[in-house]
Design a protein that fits this description.
Layout: H1 8-37, H2 45-53, H3 56-104, H4 110-120, H5 128-173, H6 179-184, H7 187-197, H8 201-211, H9 215-227, H10 229-245
Helix pairs in contact: 3-4, 3-5, 7-10
Biased composition (Basic and acidic residues): 11-21
Region (Disordered): 1-21
């Protein structure tokens, strides 16, 4: 006698139902995971105040570091939660099997009772591959969330670094107003300013136009240079050192 053929419509219906049950189980597990595992301590008022006082770059770097720590912690919690869920299910299966056999055994073979018990079980609630697939989906979702956070924070960090670098370049390139500012400038800027101070009026005008310096900016240091003999010697030594290191000027 041939085996009874299962209508395609019934198979598709069962497949949809199994997928729906699988989805609902995942939703339930994710909800329980969020409620029980993803709690975060609320920062104190002092911690929030300290965070507001940090500069942008420091704050964004700390957020990136915290995101990495939280990601690792979330993965560990996901694995632990799924392992606990799986072990609980296996324990319930053993208890259910024992209760079923004890309550239903009436002389039939134990193997037939176990087969009947297995058929009545919801396969999606217990089979190993469902737990494996559920774990993979949870890990993939966490990794996608982490990647999105890191990409966003890294983009902000890059923007801040670029802005700060541009501000630094503009600040370094600005003409120093005082002798102290002159000494704080990078060496290439000091040499540029020294060339300006040691030049005549025509070359000074040309350099001011080239570097966007205004008379009100350069006047204080020009006066310092004209009245401070020690500063004049410093500028001369700086330019002489430059000439001695420039191969184009050697032997002249």
């Amino acid at each position: 006698m041939s085996a009874e053929t299962v209508p395609p419509e019934k198979s598709m219906t069962e497949l949809r139902q199994n997928r729906e049950r699988s989805h609902l189980l995942d939703v339930h597990r994710n909800a329980m995971f969020v409620l029980t595992q993803k709690d975060r301590p609320i920062p104190s008022l002092q911690e929030m105040k300290d965070d507001l006082e940090k500069d942008e770059l420091t704050s964004i770097k700390e957020r990136i570091a915290n995101a990495k720590v939280n990601h690792r912690a979330n993965l560990e919690r996901i694995y632990a939660a799924h392992a606990e869920d799986y072990l609980d299910d296996q324990r319930l299966r053993r208890e259910s099997r024992g209760e079923y056999i004890q309550g239903q055994f009436d002389g039939e073979s134990m193997s037939s009772k176990l087969a009947e018990w297995s058929e009545k079980r919801d396969p999606l609630a217990s089979i190993d591959h469902h737990y494996e697939a559920s774990l993979k989906r949870s890990v993939a979702a966490e990794c996608a969330r982490y990647a999105s956070v890191i990409v966003d924070l890294s983009a902000k960090k890059y923007e801040i670094e670029q802005r700060l670098e541009e501000e630094r370049r503009q600040r370094d390139a600005a003409f120093p107003l005082t002798l102290e500012e002159f000494h704080s400038k990078p060496r290439d800027i000091q040499i540029r300013v020294a060339n300006f101070l040691s030049s005549d009026g025509i070359k000074r005008e040309k350099m001011m136009s080239e570097f966007g310096w205004a008379w009100r900016q350069v006047t204080p240091l020009i006066r310092e240079f004209e009245t401070n003999e020690e500063f004049q010697n410093e500028v001369s030594i700086l330019l002489e050192t430059l000439e001695s290191r420039d191969p184009r000027r050697r032997g002249q």
